[in-house]
Design goal:
- With 179 residues, the chain is mostly beta strands.
- 8% of the residues lie in helices and 47% in strands.
- The protein is built from one helix and eight strands.
- The chain has an eight-stranded antiparallel beta barrel.
- A hairpin with a 4-residue loop joins strand 6 and strand 7.
- The longest helix has 15 residues.
- The radius of gyration is 16 Å and the shape is elongated.
């Protein structure tokens, strides 16, 4: 299963590089399963290698900012959980030098989703194969074609699928190509 998801993430990423109507495509690297105020943390290590896609702005402005569809594929360098996520994203101050964006959607992963073993698991046991994904990012428009970002990404089932809900936190940096 791990090989299938990793292959799908890589294939999607290579395919996204050639999407003519993509507004933005990027790559990133992130710290996997970081310790940010969680009771259960740091079962997995390594870095995440990320591929990002964002659509052209959706025609729903009406004073609500710039909305886009987004997708993210992430492969862990240390055998931890890999995932793909996607949803809707709102960008604030996109026409300024510095911008912020909030994203929400769903994620699927190849990590275990049952109950963890009693003694010190070395994997994240998510409790559900489908999780809620959220992200907050800050970016800098380097020029008309490139931007850089730092982001906090979280995925979990928010207690909707039972008590087993450690979630996953990732802090990443990205280089984004705008079309």
């Amino acid at each position: 299963m791990r090989a299938v998801i990793m292959g799908a993430v890589l294939a999607a990423g290579m395919g996204l590089g050639g999407v003519a109507n993509a507004a933005e495509v990027g790559v990133g690297v992130g710290a996997h399963d970081v310790d940010l105020w969680k009771e259960q943390c740091c079962f997995e290590g390594g870095q995440n290698l990320e591929i990002h896609y964002r659509s052209d702005p959706l025609d729903v402005d009406r004073g609500l900012g710039v909305w886009r569809l987004w997708a993210l594929g992430s492969v862990n360098s240390d055998g931890g959980s890999n995932f793909v996520a996607g949803g809707i994203q709102r960008r604030f101050w996109g026409d300024k030098k510095v911008y912020a964006q909030l994203s929400v959607g769903l994620a699927v992963h190849d990590g275990p989703d049952g109950d963890p073993p009693v003694a010190n698991p070395d994997r994240i046991y998510f409790g559900s194969p489908v999780l809620i994904a959220s992200e907050a990012a800050a970016g800098v428009n380097l020029n008309d074609d490139w931007s850089g970002e730092v982001a906090y990404f979280h995925m979990s089932h928010a207690g909707l699928a039972g008590d087993q809900n450690p979630g996953l936190d990732v802090i990443s940096v990205r280089l984004i190509r705008k079309f």
